């Protein structure tokens, strides 16, 4: 699990419809890559040949680490990696992801490029999801009608041959498994999903293995559930009591229920000495049980409570739900595998807290970050004594840290992740998905032994490195699930991330669409990506269509909720069009409006030169691209800003610009103060401030005029 399991499908980038040059460039790379059919025809072919080529690379397997210890080999890998990243960025750019970023040198570091990959996956998957459903004729807005029983959905398997007639023994067919009319699991939940725009409160009311008892807020149903109007006292008094109770419990309400136990957790002594790895049982000889009844769950808990360790993993779905849904839990002991239906047993799974929070039992996860969130959010489960094999792999500095790599490295097991993104809500779960799911935990107890032994060997038998993995794992289990909260500023975060330059009308449209999408997604319990994918939201806000049909034209395929509410969306766009047209600039991190009267701006370039220029009053622009109406000082300021943003660009001196050689950059200069001051302000706030300032200035000018009139008048009198 190297890649983050992001629940946020809002990160999609922007397809710059005007970047024709870019399109042409891409056409050379992948001719006819402009629509889904063409993608399947050409794009898929390219992907397949790339996959084939990568499979024909020498399989270094266990020797990865050995080869990588040679600087030449490492450098070669890195340079090839860079080339690949560049290629990927180009493909993504073409596919509508951050295509506005023509200057790839602005993508600094792997992190940002990785962001790009994640964003692009979002865009592509959003499209694939919508297209598949459209092809199936599924109307996503209609809740499927469920017959009395739980009707098995029709499974659709789209497949293509991954390797051609290949030499590899296992099935090489890549399957995109999804299902028609999957019943919405949310309909079966005993407790309704809480998509309200309020912080998450832990779902816990009993606390097994507690050293510090659970706050009465959680244990006392009366306190938790009592509404002021249900108290048998006058309304005002009830309100007061309720308020006091809430205040009294507010800290407990948001604290990690096992904070105290985790803070005081020490690894059992025996676990810091070198283990003899206990070989896993062949999967074919291991019993696998599907747990979907309370009775079986209780029996499973009893079994787990008797063990010293077991492995856990979760499968998740986040497209047809606002917060995401935990669909499956895999548990492996040294003897058995269990597949737990976390949809069916969602309200009962807290039972497992007895084993999950027992400090004497090690819970082995691989890459537990998201799992910890999902356990808390959906099942009210916490983990005390977590061992994360992903953290162990990092401490051992292995070549890669994915589960596939560890399986290959320690167990010589080849896996593929073809079901990782399957629709895990499908019931009954197809056998092949069960088999896939169990491999995620089956080998983990053995890998846990191996990495512990190696961590001790690595450190000459000293437990320091092993202890550090336990500490990192504990930090992960201390994480608290944070619910996405919408604020008036939320859209700015996404806008900043996308680094697009918008005028005030476009930005207003973006803000209104963002709010519409958030509200509707919460209400309908759909992801924001399903409601209105970010790249479509970008397109609408850039183009500001004058007609509802124009909004539809920005979306391909049209999301069902957009089709349903196109008139509301159109009203929002109209509202945005009524804004005065100003250009919005991005300056360093914050965005701001270029408007400061006669303000000195100092900027230093790489050679230590300090440039100072005046920015004078700006004129409101008739059109966003109306360069002529820029004042000279604005142009200067723009160039300074550009040179600030790109330190490799030499700032060219021109009249009115002062450059002092070797001058020190003054940290307290205005550029700093301003960027700080603007940082937390929304564009609207900025606009208000600017208007107030202008108004004050206008008044003071008028007053000055009045005064001078009076003076002239009195002089005349004299
Ligand atoms: O690249 C990825 C990897 C995973 N997910 C989601 O996470 C869960 C669990 O993944 P594991 O690999 O089993 O830890 C999976 O069901 C996906 O929903 C993902 O979205 N993208
Ligand atoms: Mn898994």
Write the layout of secondary structure elements.
Blueprint: H1 20-29, H2 36-55, H3 64-68, H4 71-94, H5 109-136, E1 154-161, E2 173-180, H6 216-219, H7 221-225, H8 235-254, H9 259-263, E3 287-291, H10 294-305, E4 309-317, E5 325-332, E6 336-341, H11 353-356, E7 362-365, H12 369-379, E8 386-388, H13 389-395, H14 403-411, H15 431-442, H16 444-458, H17 464-477, H18 490-498, H19 504-524, H20 528-531, H21 534-543, H22 548-553, H23 560-564, H24 566-577, E9 584-586, E10 591-593, E11 599-604, E12 610-615, H25 632-645, E13 658-660, H26 670-679, H27 683-717
Bound molecules: the ligand O=c1ccn([C@@H]2O[C@H](COP(=O)(O)O)[C@@H](O)[C@H]2O)c(=O)[nH]1 and manganese (II) ion (MN).
Brief synopsis:
The protein has 718 residues and is of the alpha/beta class.
Name a few traits of the molecule.
718 residues; alpha/beta; Nucleotidyltransferase, domain 5; DNA polymerase, domain 1; six-stranded mixed β-sheet; three-stranded antiparallel β-sheet; 13 strands; globular; disordered N terminus; binds the ligand O=c1ccn([C@@H]2O[C@H](COP(=O)(O)O)[C@@H](O)[C@H]2O)c(=O)[nH]1; binds manganese (II) ion
Commentary on this structure:
By secondary structure, the protein is of the alpha/beta class. Among the domains are: 1-45; 268-477, Nucleotidyltransferase, domain 5 (2-Layer Sandwich), CATH 3.30.420.10; 490-579, HRDC domain (DNA polymerase, domain 1, Orthogonal Bundle), CATH 1.10.150; 588-620 and 653-718, no CATH class. Helices cover 46% and strands 10% of the residues. It contains 27 helices and 13 strands. The protein has helices spanning 20-29, 36-55, 64-68, 71-94, 109-136, 216-219, 221-225, 235-254, 259-263, 294-305, 353-356, 369-379, 389-395, 403-411, 431-442, 444-458, 464-477, 490-498, 504-524, 528-531, 534-543, 548-553, 560-564, 566-577, 632-645, 670-679, 683-717; strands at residues 154-161, 173-180, 287-291, 309-317, 325-332, 336-341, 362-365, 386-388, 584-586, 591-593, 599-604, 610-615, 658-660. The strands form four sheets. It has a six-stranded mixed sheet with strand order 3-6-5-4-7-8, sandwiched between helices. A hairpin with a 4-residue loop joins strand 9 (584-586) and strand 10. Residues 1-43, 96-109, 138-152, 154-176, 585-601, 603-634 and 643-682 have low confidence and may be disordered. It binds ligand LLZGTKA7 and manganese (II) ion (MN).
């Amino acid at each position: 699990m190297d890649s983050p399991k992001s629940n946020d499908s809002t990160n999609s980038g922007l397809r710059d419809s005007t970047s024709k040059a870019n399109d042409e460039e891409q056409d050379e790379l992948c001719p006819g890559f402009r629509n889904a059919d063409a993608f399947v025809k050409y794009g898929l072919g390219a992907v397949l040949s790339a996959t084939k080529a990568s499979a024909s690379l020498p399989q270094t397997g266990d020797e990865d680490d050995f080869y990588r210890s040679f600087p030449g080999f490492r450098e070669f890998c890195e340079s090839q990696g860079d080339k690949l990243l560049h290629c990927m960025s180009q493909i993504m750019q073409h596919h509508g992801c951050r295509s506005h970023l023509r200057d790839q040198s602005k993508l600094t570091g792997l992190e940002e490029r990785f962001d790009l990959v994640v964003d692009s996956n979002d865009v592509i998957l959003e499209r694939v999801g919508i297209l598949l459903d459209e092809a199936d004729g599924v109307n996503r807005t209609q809740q499927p009608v469920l017959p009395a029983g739980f009707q098995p959905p029709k499974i659709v398997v789209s497949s293509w041959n991954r390797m051609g007639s290949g030499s590899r023994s296992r099935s090489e067919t890549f399957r995109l498994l999804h299902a028609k009319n999957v019943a919405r699991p949310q309909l079966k939940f005993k407790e309704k999903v809480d998509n309200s725009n309020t912080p998450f409160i832990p779902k816990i009311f009993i606390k097994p293995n507690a050293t510090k008892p659970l706050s009465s807020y959680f244990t006392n149903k009366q306190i938790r559930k009592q509404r002021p109007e249900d108290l048998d006292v006058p309304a005002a008094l009830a309100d007061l009591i309720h308020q006091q109770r809430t205040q009294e419990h507010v800290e407990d309400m948001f604290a990690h229920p096992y904070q105290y136990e985790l803070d005081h957790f020490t690894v059992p002594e025996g676990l810091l000495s070198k283990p003899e790895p206990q070989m896993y049982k062949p999967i074919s000889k291991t019993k696998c049980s599907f747990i979907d009844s309370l009775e079986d769950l209780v029996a499973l808990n009893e079994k787990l409570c008797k063990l010293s360790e077991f492995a856990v993993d979760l499968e998740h779905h986040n497209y047809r739900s606002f917060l995401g849904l935990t669909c499956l839990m895999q548990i492996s002991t040294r003897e058995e595998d269990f597949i737990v239906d976390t949809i069916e047993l969602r309200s009962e799974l807290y039972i497992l807290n007895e084993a999950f929070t027992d400090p004497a039992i090690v819970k082995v996860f691989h890459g537990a970050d998201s799992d910890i969130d999902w356990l808390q959010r959906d099942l009210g489960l916490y983990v005390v004594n977590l061992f994360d094999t992903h953290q162990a792999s990092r401490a051992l500095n292995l070549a890669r840290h994915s589960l596939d790599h560890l399986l290959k490295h320690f167990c010589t097991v080849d896996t593929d992740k073809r079901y990782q993104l399957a629709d895990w809500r499908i019931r009954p779960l197809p056998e092949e998905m069960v088999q896939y799911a169990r491999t995620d935990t089956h080998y983990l107890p053995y890998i846990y032994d191996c990495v512990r032994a190696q961590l001790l060997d690595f450190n000459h038998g000293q437990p320091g490195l092993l202890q550090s993995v336990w500490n990192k794992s504990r930090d992960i289990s201390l994480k608290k699930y944070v619910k996405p909260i919408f604020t008036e500023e939320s859209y700015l975060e996404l806008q900043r991330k996308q680094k697009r330059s918008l005028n005030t009308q476009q930005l207003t449209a973006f803000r209104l669409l963002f709010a519409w999408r958030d509200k509707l997604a919460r209400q309908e319990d759909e992801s924001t990506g399903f409601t209105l994918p970010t790249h479509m939201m970008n397109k609408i806000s850039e183009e500001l269509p004058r007609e509802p049909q124009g909004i539809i034209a920005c979306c391909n395929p049209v999301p069902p909720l957009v089709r349903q509410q196109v008139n509301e969306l159109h009203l929002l766009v109209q509202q945005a069009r009524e804004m005065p047209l100003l250009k919005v600039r991005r300056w360093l991190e914050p965005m701001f409006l270029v408007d400061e009267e006669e303000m000195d701006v100092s900027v230093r370039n790489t050679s230590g030169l300090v440039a100072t220029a005046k920015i004078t009053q700006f004129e409101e622009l008739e059109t966003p691209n109306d360069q002529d109406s820029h004042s000279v000082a604005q142009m200067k300021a723009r160039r300074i800003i550009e040179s600030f943003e790109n330190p490799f660009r030499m700032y060219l001196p021109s009249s009115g610009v002062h450059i002092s050689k070797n001058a020190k950059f003054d940290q307290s200069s205005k550029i700093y103060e301003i960027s700080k001051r603007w940082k937390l302000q929304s564009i609207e706030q900025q606009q208000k401030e600017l208007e107030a300032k202008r108004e004050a200035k206008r008044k003071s000018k008028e007053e000055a005029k009045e005064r001078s009139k009076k003076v002239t008048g009195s002089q005349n009198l004299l």
